[in-house]
Write a structure and sequence with these properties.
The protein has 577 residues and is of the alpha/beta class. It has 25 helices and 14 strands. It is globular, with a radius of gyration of 29 Å. It binds one RNA strand of 77 nucleotides through strand 1, helix 2, helix 15, helix 16 and strand 14.
Length: 577
RNA sequence: GGUUCGGUAGCUCAGUUGGAUAGAGCAUCAGCCUUCUAAGCUGAGGGUCAUUGGUUCGAAUCCAAUCCGGAUCACCA
């Protein structure tokens, strides 16, 4: 019975008992097993209603017979039971829980599954090189990172990837603005983080464009026309053509400015703990897909219009017709993506491909998957779009034009300094040195932020209130510390508590029991999160775990330990993230 | 309009394959405490689970319709 969760064991035991009692076969689908609600006595509950019909017995009688049988055959696991209506509540013996604990508390792989040989690529982050990372990107990063780690824990070989959008008209906009207004300024001369520096010129471009458009409008030009005719826009368009032709001075400028941005991104990524096994650059991949078009035409998946443009007809799948190549022969976004998808399969032989992309691209991803399937790309069915909703502010949507974007670096700084402020006020860290303190604050601040972005179901859009979200009340402090701590370390701590404890009896305290039972769920929660590809399951679970642990932490000997011991514990926690 | 996702406490959100009296944090109120008057402790109040109908022993959960909100429906990426 090793390696099984208590629920699995209970299911198995109940099936055996039912079969010997009533002489007919049962499966785990015939009844339900869940954790007992706190207001009732017991730890696990068998729900019997579904059995009453076929067995023609009252729920109470059935509960009593099954309860007696389970205790008779498994007295080392179940100590007692009670029946309320159709619910059979079973209590797990302390011995069994202690055994669980002793088996697991030194296991560094606790909760992890064996390697299953499957390869998964998780593509996330996808920044543009014309502006810094903002709050929405952070949600993306944390989601992608978490899903990747959850899959790893479930035994998958995970490749983290990132596609950088480093070319196109928007990039040229900041380049033009820099040429016109910077007078040779650089991040170094202005002492600005590279991505912020470039972002400023993107903003400047838009400001200048607005001025020029307004001027044209005053002369009676239509707004749409004015936007196209504005000199600065035409300069940007011209620059894009130069870039595509590979004009050296444009390429040099492009490399220089992107370099600044990457330096800035590096700092932020390091800070939030993101990294990628492979980074794709759109400037390298935007021509991919030309072959795909040929292949699709040959297979009859695509068709050519009279004007030379190439399309796919998806009306049978409930969608529209979609263009895959313009009449001038250049490829569109979707074609590049298919090209990249194909390349990913060819390079890595991945079994599954996960894209962490906002929900405004739901339609696009649906089309992508359909085309991939129709072209018979390998594992096309295993393309999965992990779609997530926008992050909004209490004041409404974030809009870069109106300057209401929450910058990632700023919000991280704010979280960390709030963590510092609160911790100092609580005064529990007087014996920490400066370096240790910085680590601690970083852990606290980032932990709080990760939690508040991850606990919401990805597909829902969410409101992030910087004022309220930086919340270090009550158990949140310890919670934050443990959010990203490895669970087995917590387990070990509890194990030591229980085994090293000077108490004579082996009876568990209610809190210990609760904690062990909560930890017991860990692997099934991780598994569920991997199946649903939903990290919020884990975040909310850890929240519960932390509440339990916090009670334990405050009420137990850790709270009575001298300050050196406390310090060690806190350092250990900080280093576990 | 078509497609699609959402609507749960004053606010932000959980709620497992349909199960017991729908939960948490914040906010509010009461009490505890006070040399710096608390990011602390105990407790309380707060719900038509958008609406209506259906499925059944049993529905926030499944089905249908309606209302409200978001996203999307480009030879942009």
């Amino acid at each position: 019975m090793k390696g099984m969760t208590i629920i699995q064991m209970l299911q198995k035991a109940a099936i055996e008992s039912l079969q010997s009692l009533y002489n007919q076969p049962f499966t785990e689908k015939d009844f339900q097993v869940s954790q007992t609600k706190p207001e009732f006595e017991g730890n696990y509950t068998v729900v019997l209603f579904s059995l009453t019909k076929s067995l023609k017995k009252s729920p109470e009688a059935l509960g009593k017979e099954l309860g007696d049988e389970l205790i008779k055959n498994h007295s080392h696991i179940f100590s007692k039971y009670n029946v309320i209506k159709g619910f059979l509540n079973l209590t797990i013996t302390d011995d069994h829980l202690l055994d669980l604990l002793n088996r697991n508390y030194n296991d560094v792989c606790f909760g992890k599954h064996k390697i299953n040989g499957k390869k998964i690529m998780v593509e996330y982050s996808s920044p543009n090189t014309n502006k810094p990372i903002h709050l929405g990107h952070l949600r993306n990063n944390f989601l992608g990172w978490s899903v990747a780690e959850i899959l790893k824990a479930n035994g998958y070989d995970v490749i983290k990837s990132c596609i950088v959008n480093d070319r196109g008209i928007h990039i040229c906009k900041s380049m033009i603005a820099w040429q016109k207004f910077a007078n040779g300024a650089t991040p170094q001369t202005t002492n600005t983080k590279g991505d912020h520096f470039v972002g400023e010129y993107y903003v400047k471009f838009n400001g200048e464009l607005k001025k020029e458009v307004d001027e044209l409008k005053n002369k009676g030009t239509d707004e749409e026309v004015a936007e196209k005719q504005a000199p600065i826009m035409q300069q940007a368009q011209a620059m894009l053509l130069d870039w595509e032709e590979g004009k050296p001075e444009v390429i040099d400028l492009w490399k220089k400015m992107n370099g600044w941005v990457y330096e800035g991104f590096d700092v932020t990524y390091k800070r939030i703990g993101s990294y990628f096994d492979i980074t794709y650059y759109e400037s390298n991949t935007y021509l991919l897909g030309k072959d795909i078009v040929k292949e699709g035409l040959a297979k009859g998946v695509f068709f050519k219009e009279e004007d030379g443009s190439i399309w796919i007809d998806l009306t049978e799948d409930g969608l529209d017709k979609k263009i895959v190549q313009r009449r001038d022969g250049t490829s569109v976004y979707i074609t590049q993506d298919i090209g990249l998808a194909k390349q990913k399969y060819e390079e890595y032989k991945i079994d599954k491909s996960i894209y962490v992309i906002g929900d405004e691209q739901n339609y696009h991803m649906k089309v992508l998957k359909l085309i991939a399937e129709k072209l018979d790309l390998p594992n096309a069915k295993n393309i999965y779009h992990l779609s997530y909703g926008m992050v909004e502010l209490p004041s409404g949507k974030m809009k870069s034009r109106e300057g209401t974007v929450v910058d990632a670096d700023e919000i991280i700084d704010e979280m960390i300094s709030t963590a510092k402020h609160h911790t100092e006020e609580l005064g529990k860290v007087k014996d920490f040195n400066e370096h240790e303190l910085d680590d601690l604050y970083e852990t606290l601040g980032l932990g709080a932020m990760k939690f508040y972005l991850l606990r919401v179901d990805p597909k829902k859009r969410m409101v992030f209130n910087p004022e309220e979200s930086i919340d270090f009340h009550g158990f949140t402090g310890p919670f934050v510390q443990y959010t990203y701590a490895r669970i087995q370390s917590v387990l070990r701590k509890v194990g030591q508590q229980s085994t090293v404890d000077s108490r004579q009896s082996t009876e568990l305290l209610p809190l210990e029991k609760e904690l062990i039972l909560t930890l017991e769920q860990y692997s099934s929660i991780i598994e569920q999160a991997a199946n649903e590809l939903n990290p919020s399951v884990v975040a909310n679970y850890v929240f519960d775990l932390a509440k339990t642990f916090n009670s334990f932490y405050t009420e137990h000997s850790i709270a009575n330990a001298d300050s050196e011991e406390k310090k060690q514990l806190r350092l250990q926690i900080a280093s576990m993230t």
